[in-house]
Amino acid sequence: MKILKKAGPPQPTKLQKRISGLPTSEIIIWTENYLAEIGKHVAGLGEKTPERYSDALQAAEVVVDLVSELHKRSNV
Questions:
Q1: Distance (Å, rounded) from C-alpha 54 to C-alpha 52?
Q2: Which pLDDT tens digits describe the chain residue by residue (76 residues)?
Q3: How far apart are CA 63 and CA 32, in angstroms?
């Protein structure tokens, strides 16, 4: 028989843990860099391949975590 666990708040990922330990100024720099990376992968020169779009998607997921942390800090 399976024992059901109570659903609690989701556990933070390794990336979210790393981001939470960074100073705000560093998070802003990371955000700007990842936004530039997304632009390079989507609109940059060269052939548009599925790998480039996959890389852009991964960078976008990082940006979501970065901006979420900035939003959390601004509502303190």
A1: 5
A2: 566 777 788 889 999 999 999 999 999 999 999 999 999 999 988 888 999 999 999 999 999 999 999 999 998 6
A3: 9
The residue to which tokens 């976008």 are assigned = 60
CA-to-CA distance for 23 and 45, rounded, in angstroms?
34
In the chain, where are the structural domains located? 23-74
Cα gap 69→27, rounded to integer Å: 8
Place of tokens 């960078």: 59
Q: Letter for the amino acid at 15?
A: L
Contact 65, 72 (CB under 8 A): no
pTM of the model: 0.82
Do residues 64 and 71 touch, judged by C-beta distance below 8 A?
A: no
